[in-house]
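Section 3.1: Structural characterization of target chains.
Under the original work plan, the team committed to producing a structural model for every single-chain target entering the pipeline before any wet-lab resources were allocated. The record below documents one such target. The sequence was received from the expression subgroup and is listed exactly as submitted; it comprises 273 residues.
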Amino acid sequence: QLIQHAMALFAPTREDCSDPAPAVVFLDLEEDIICFTATFLAPRDLAIFSEASEYIIALSSLETVWRTACIQRWENWPMYRTTSDHEPQSQPQTAPRSWRCRYAAVEEQAARTMLTPEEMQSMRWLFNYTPEAGGRGRSSVMEARFIFNHGLRLVLDGYSSLPCLLDASPSTLPDSHATGDSDDPENQLDVDFPAPEAARALRQLEVVAACKDISQQRLIIANFPPHSVSRIDSTREWLITNQNVTFVSCHDADPTSLGSYTDRGFLDRFSDV
């Protein structure tokens, strides 16, 4: 019955009810009951609910409802998962950010499909070969790092660092990353990429651009086949792959965690027998 009242929010209120003796007017309910009803709404409906009237906008308890929605939504997204460290903090002269605003901001971030070099350098990455390329599942997983040293470079323990180029379309990245003519491959790349690898990488990106699927971001590492950049639907972690290797971002709190990505033989268990 409470849900039915919630769905009829735009029906009778105190001010516009023409029925001289309505059985129940939703806005006459206690604040706790109204907010409890709101917990059953999907986030999109909750956003509409939150602006249904000045009375509802003023309900302080709705902030708790939005916080619960955030916790539930981000539970399986380690990059955004809510912890005590992520609680909004009051600043001396700044009002704390509402949970509703946080929800909208994270949804926007989680929907992004274009990675930036700065993000690559700030994240923890796990690397593995595919089984077809000699990967041994969990036993061959290693940590990878992306650093900036005369251009973006990949660092793997036991190997020399490798130069990288990230295909960055100005139309899909923040303005700070958009420079030059978007039709010129060199203007979409890190111009500090060292020669002679630069010419080779540019040729690879020209080949990629000629393919049908030009909507997906690509990463070039040295002279290896181009890597596709995407996100894992279930966790919103970043995924970088080609036919031989897999890179997965890992935001688990445990620094020894191997994450939860299991496709492409990434965490398979192999028997030595």
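Residues 88-95, 170-193 have pLDDT under 50 and may be disordered.
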